Amino acid sequence: MVVAVVPSTIAEEASAQPKGAGRRFSWRKLRWWRGVVLVLTAVFFLLPLYAALRFALEDNLGHLTTAAFTAIVHETGFLGALYLSLRLAAVTMAITLVLVVPTTIYVHLRYPRLLVAFDAITLLPIGIPPIVLIIGVLQSTPFFLKSSPYLLSLEYVVLATPFAYRSLDAGLRAIDLKTLVEASRSLGSRWFSTMWRVILPNLRAALASAMILSLALVLGEFTMASLDLYTTLPVWIVNASARTAHVSVAVSFLSLVLTWLLLFGLSALDRRQFRKFRVVDEET
Description:
Elements: H1 2-29, H2 32-56, H3 67-70, H4 78-110, H5 115-122, H6 124-127, H7 130-140, H8 143-146, H9 151-173, H10 177-186, H11 191-202, H12 204-220, H13 223-227, H14 233-241, H15 245-283
Helix pairs in contact: 2-15, 4-9, 4-12, 4-14, 9-12, 10-11, 12-15, 14-15
């Protein structure tokens, strides 16, 4: 019986091998589609940027000039709008991290079964239109908060929560959080010291990503600021487009490039940290 079974098994493996080999060959043959997808994606994103840059570098006669970029700092209200947006971004990032970081860590440690519910809850600000949020806030907010521009920061925290939570959630899933916390507490460390010296250093890339995404949101949000009657950078760009369209497009292009540079710097820092940890791991 053994002799009868072995040949059939060998025959089945021999018949299965050409199929697997043929499947692997077909995937290798179709790898050029990756380059096609990358090229199409690059065209989709870079073509509008090229059009915006070309429009900003042209004058009304179609001649190339950098006057739109050099005139940005001399435009009325630009520095004030930029300063207000940066202040709101700093307050938004601080409040978002203070609220989201401890909550996300606590849920991952104590209630991991609620992570699915938290994913659904943090998606609500994306599904609710900003105009609905701002109208609800203006109807229910006391007057002393309405007169402060930092009311926008509280509203931006709601919009930034989905992005900050997902960035931190991905960072926490990449580390063995429970083991790190138990090891730190077994050595006599308190909860605050554990978070500050053990958990947060392992979440530097996730924290930086959450901060940059919050900054990009504040620098690009228009609806809430305009309805709240504050001239932030996006509101100034829209108002300036009626006077000098070339300058407004130049400011939009520079703000987008700044956000991209921050994101690229974050990814480079993350790769550098990964190489450092890999070298240490190989040496040990």
